[in-house]
């Protein structure tokens, strides 16, 4: 069984040789976040206020968030290919724009009866980009994810992610365990120095988005939300390094600064990261 994300992070931080936690930077960033909470520039209401996100009073909001976060991964295009754009948005918000457009066009994209069997052609049509846009990346992988989660919802949860949330009785930890147990595509685990560690990036994003969408009430009222960790999105290390909360070794920093694809090289370093 894999260590949960918090325990995984502690282990990795203790053994890391190329990435370091800087205590003073952590304190500085914590103060910035606290100030944002005080002046309300950071608050759960920000989620549903975005025009592309569902509102908490939408009876399909939980299933909307679930579909978004099932598809919420890797928006990078290869080489010099143009970015995927929908209504001018790129990345995650291009996905949000595509899903909202599909809903407004009457496509049942929030219904697992539909997306558990959706064809690649239909999914590509939903992801259709702007005139100057590149294609949505990893369509085959996203198709597989939809088929998987849709089938599980139909077989075990009455066709709705709401039932998954209710089954956990207000516990974010139990919901995290349910998500990564039931839905394989949310289960990002790896071996690190002989230990099985877990990031559970999208699973934690999903819980955080439910919490924010419902503004900590109703389906988003988790009594243990503080146990959910900061998810391992690629923007997060950028922020941590910017505020001096995290530091890279010179060899790793040199690799990152080249602007080249260094994924495989970083993988070769993973035993020492």
TrEMBL record:
Keyword annotations: Hydrolase
Keyword Transport: no
EC number(s) stated in the UniProt entry for this protein: 3.2.2.-
Transmembrane parts of this sequence: none
Catalyses which reaction(s): queuosine 5'-phosphate + H2O = queuine + D-ribose 5-phosphate
GO terms, biological process: tRNA modification
InterPro entries (UniProt xref): Q_salvage
A Pfam family reported for this protein in Swiss-Prot or TrEMBL: Q_salvage
GO MF annotation, one: hydrolase activity
Family according to the record: Belongs to the QNG1 protein family.
Function: Catalyzes the hydrolysis of queuosine 5'-phosphate, releasing the nucleobase queuine (q). Is required for salvage of queuine from exogenous queuosine (Q) that is imported and then converted to queuosine 5'-phosphate intracellularly.
Name this polypeptide is given: Queuosine 5'-phosphate N-glycosylase/hydrolase
Organism of this sequence: Cephus cinctus (Wheat stem sawfly)
Gene name linked to the record: LOC107266507
């Amino acid at each position: 069984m894999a260590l949960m994300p918090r325990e995984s992070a502690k282990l990795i931080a203790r053994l890391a040789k190329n990435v370091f936690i800087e205590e003073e930077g952590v304190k500085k960033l914590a103060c910035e976040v606290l100030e944002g909470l005080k002046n309300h520039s950071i608050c759960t209401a920000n989620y549903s206020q975005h025009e592309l996100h569902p509102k908490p009073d939408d009876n399909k909001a939980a299933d909307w968030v679930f579909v978004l976060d099932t598809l919420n991964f890797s928006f990078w295009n290869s080489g010099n290919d143009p970015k995927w754009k929908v209504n001018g948005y790129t990345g995650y918000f291009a996905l949000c724009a595509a899903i909202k457009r599909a809903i407004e066009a009457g496509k049942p994209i929030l219904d697992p009866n539909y997306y558990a069997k959706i064809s690649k052609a239909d999914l590509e049509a939903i992801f259709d980009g702007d005139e100057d846009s590149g294609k949505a990346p990893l369509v085959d992988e996203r198709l597989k994810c939809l088929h998987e989660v849709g089938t599980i919802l139909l077989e075990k949860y009455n066709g709705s992610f709401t039932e998954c949330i209710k089954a956990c009785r207000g516990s974010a930890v139990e919901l995290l365990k349910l998500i990564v147990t039931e839905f394989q595509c949310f289960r990002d685990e790896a071996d690190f120095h002989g230990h099985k560690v877990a990031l559970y990036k999208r699973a934690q994003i999903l819980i955080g988005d439910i919490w924010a969408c419902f503004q900590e009430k109703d389906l988003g009222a988790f009594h243990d939300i503080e146990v959910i960790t900061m998810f391992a999105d690629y923007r997060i290390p950028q922020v941590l390094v910017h505020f001096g909360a995290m530091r890279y070794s010179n060899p790793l920093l040199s690799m990152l600064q080249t602007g080249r694809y260094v994924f495989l090289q970083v993988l070769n370093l993973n035993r020492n990261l």
